[in-house]
Each structure stands twice: as C-alpha cells, then as structure tokens.
Design brief:
binds S-adenosylmethionine; alpha/beta; Rossmann fold; eight-stranded mixed beta sheet; 20% strand; single chain
C-alpha cells in the first residue's frame, strides 16, 4: 500500500535552512535546492539500496555512496529514448561518467520500460529523482510510477523533486477583462482538467493534477488523503516558492542564450511511502 506523504512546493525558507546547516550541494535556484534537499530529507544508512533515476550527470549519487556507505545505482538512458541526448550531452560524455563516479553502479535503461531485465524489482529502499520526472511525457508517466512501485521494497520511500511552472502570471494581468477572461478562464480550465483528464493523459501542470494522477494510477492502492496540495491561485500568490532565476532560464533553457518569454519555474516535492502493512 502506498501513502502520499508530501506534495508541496519547495520553499525559500527550506533553502535558507539548508544553507544554514551547510548541507553539501546547497546553491540557489531550483537545482541549488533539489540536490541538497535529498540529503536534508532522507536518512541514509549503510545498509540501504538507493537509486537516482535520471542521475547520469549528477555527482550526488557518488557523494551518497562515499559518505553514507549505501549501495547507489543510477538508472538513466542518457536521453536516448526522449530524444534529448544532445541536450544532456552538454554535461559530458557518457563514458566519462562511470570513471568519475567509481562507487556508483550505472544501469543504462529507462524506468517505465516494464520489460527491462536490467532494472531490479522489489529491491530499493529509496528511489529519488531530481529535475527528471518533468521530462517524462504525460502519457508515459503512469508506467514510470507503476514501475517505481515495483522497484521499491516494502517500507521503501520515493522522494521526487519535480520542476513545474508556477501556474499563473498574475502580474501579467493588467486589465479587468484580462483578469476575468485570462485568469479566471485559466483556473477554470485547470479545474476541469484536474477532474476530467483520463489516466492515460494526466494533467500534470498543477499540484492538484498530480494528486489526481496518483489516485487514478494506483486506485485503492494509494492513500492520498493526508495531503491537500496548494491550489493554482494560492501557488501564484505564494512568495515562498523557490524559483529558477531568469538568467539561468536565459542561459540554459532551450533555445539557449536567446530571448524568450520568462515563466516562473518552481519545483515541488513529492514523497510516497510504500508500507508493508496497511495500517501503521
Ligand atoms: C534534467 S536531467 C536530470 C538532472 C540530474 N538529476 C541533476 O541533478 O542534475 C534528466 C535526466 O533524466 C533522464 N531520464 C528521463 N526520463 C527517464 C526515465 N524514464 N528513466 C531513466 N532516465 C530518465 C534523462 O536521460 C536525463 O539524463
């Protein structure tokens, strides 16, 4: 049985706390929050089997393996299937990664490939992702989650940091008409999508959409009741969300170093526990 533990925005307050605690990898912006958040939130023990999905270019798995003595795997296909191989290759050659991180085992495959014979099932105590799940197309997301559930051991935990656009640019609404047609229409659209989107094409642009997606994917196999995520309007007004600075968006987001519309990107934390017994 799965239990939803957290579904909330990553906050600036938490980022500041991680800086105060001098958590390694703490920086600024989304990545500066997400990598240290894994260290901040998870309690690593030497006996644990841990996997980062989509961690091909991150130094965090090696840090965890070396400092906590866990067995750490990375599962990543280096963007081959999503067609993003050239996008990620800016971080270095695939062959170099293993050399740089000798304590990590790399599995070159894609989570969601349910026929994989390389990805172990019922095996991991902790599955985590950092800025990865937003690259999975909506229609493939259910398979990815069903696969992760199979990979996890009973009493295991999934911790995901997922980048997401903050729903509304209220600051762009300059007229009453714009407010009514643009803003209200936008919320209405998401309200309808949250409730009507089929399981095969989930609405993953809001936190509430994510909760609905989990409910539809796992049915009675997940308890989502403990968590009430912030709605789109409150998210738009919340000043405590960590956002990606405009200069990072300008420099790295495609098309890189070209003028483009700036949208506020935040990141949210999704934590799911797999409990061996139904009530605990
Ligand atoms: C933005 S990068 C991840 C960034 C990295 N975690 C970090 O901390 O910098 C996204 C990565 O996820 C991988 N990826 C996307 N979907 C995947 C899947 N279903 N299974 C395995 N890897 C996946 C891509 O190949 C890519 O390397």
């Amino acid at each position: 049985m799965l239990y939803l533990k957290e579904l909330r925005w990553a906050t600036v307050s938490e980022l500041m706390e991680m800086h105060q605690r001098k958590i390694p990898f703490a920086g600024w912006g989304i990545k500066g929050h997400n990598r240290p958040f894994i260290l901040h939130y998870c309690q690593f023990k030497p006996s644990m089997k841990v996997v980062e999905i989509g961690g091909a270019y991150s130094d965090l798995p090696q840090y965890i393996a070396k400092n906590f003595g866990c067995q750490v795997d990375v599962i990543d296909d280096f963007g081959v299937e999503s067609g993003e191989a050239s996008l990620w290759s800016r971080w270095g050659a695939r062959e170099e990664v293993q050399k740089r991180n000798p304590d990590v085992r790399y599995i070159f495959d894609r989570v969601g490939n349910l026929h994989s014979n390389k990805i172990p099932l019922n095996y991991y105590d902790l599955i985590y992702t950092v800025s990865t799940l937003e690259h999975v197309p909506a229609h493939a997301m259910a398979k990815v989650f069903l696969h992760m559930e199979q990979m996890l051991k009973p009493d295991g935990l999934m911790v995901h940091c997922i980048d997401l656009q903050i729903p509304l640019k209220l600051h762009k609404t300059k007229t009453i008409k714009g407010l009514l047609l643009g803003t209200a229409g936008y919320y209405l659209y998401f309200w309808a999508m949250n409730h009507l989107a089929p399981a095969s094409r989930p609405q993953l642009k809001t936190l509430i959409g994510w909760k609905q997606f989990l409910k539809k994917t796992f049915g009675s196999g997940i308890d989502v009741s403990p968590v009430r995520p912030e709605g789109a309007l409150m998210s738009s007004l919340n000043p405590d969300i960590v956002t990606e600075p405009a200069e990072i968006v300008y420099k790295y987001y495609p098309p890189a170093e070209q003028p483009k519309l700036f949208r506020r990107n935040g990141s949210f934390i999704l934590v799911i526990e797999k409990r061996a017994q139904a009530s605990k």
